[in-house]
């Protein structure tokens, strides 16, 4: 039996929520991981001298929201690791 045969599939779902006007975009990305959920937040603002291209603002806000979510996932993982590790302090 190979390692691949022993793998268990887990499905995570991401949902993106966006609010925007001509110059601002706010994005929230929600992660549903089955047993827990986390969210990340991102914002973007158009420089008044830049052309109005909403897709750019949406992509920046989404990237920032995903980065924030990645930080929350990392922090969550470290908390779980620390909860299972023995305390080695004197």
Summary keywords:
single chain; three-stranded antiparallel beta sheet; 2 helices
Structure explained in plain terms:
With 90 residues, this protein is of the alpha+beta class. The protein has one domain: Rv1738 (Double Stranded RNA Binding Domain). Helix content is 39%, strand content 29%. It is built from 2 helices and 3 strands, in the order αβββα.
Question: What can be said about this structure in brief?
Answer:
With 90 residues, the chain is α+β, with helices and mostly antiparallel strands. 39% of the residues lie in helices and 29% in strands. The model has no long low-confidence stretch (mean pLDDT 91).
SSE arrangement, N to C: HEEEH
Largest sheet: 3 strands, antiparallel
For the record, the CATH class is: Alpha Beta
Order of strands side by side in the largest beta sheet?
1-2-3
> What percent strand?
25-35%
Give me the number of helical elements. Answer: 2
Number of strands: 3
What number of domains?
Answer: 1
Could you tell me the mean pLDDT?
Answer: 91
The CATH topology, please?
Double Stranded RNA Binding Domain
Say which CATH homologous superfamily is assigned. Answer: Rv1738
Rg over CA atoms, rounded to whole Å, is 19 Å
Proper CATH architecture = 2-Layer Sandwich
Q: Based on helices, strands and strand pairing, what is the structural class?
A: alpha+beta
Overall form: elongated
N-to-C CA distance = 44 Å
Unreliable residue runs: none
Portion in helices: 25-40%
């Amino acid at each position: 039996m190979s390692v691949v045969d022993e793998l268990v599939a887990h499905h995570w779902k991401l949902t993106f929520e966006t609010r925007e006007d001509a110059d601002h975009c706010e994005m929230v990305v929600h992660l549903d991981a089955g047993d827990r959920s986390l969210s990340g937040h991102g914002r973007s603002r158009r420089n008044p001298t830049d052309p109005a291209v909403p897709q750019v603002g949406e992509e920046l806000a989404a990237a920032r929201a995903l980065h924030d979510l990645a930080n929350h996932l990392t922090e969550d993982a470290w908390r779980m690791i620390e909860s299972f590790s023995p305390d080695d302090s004197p």
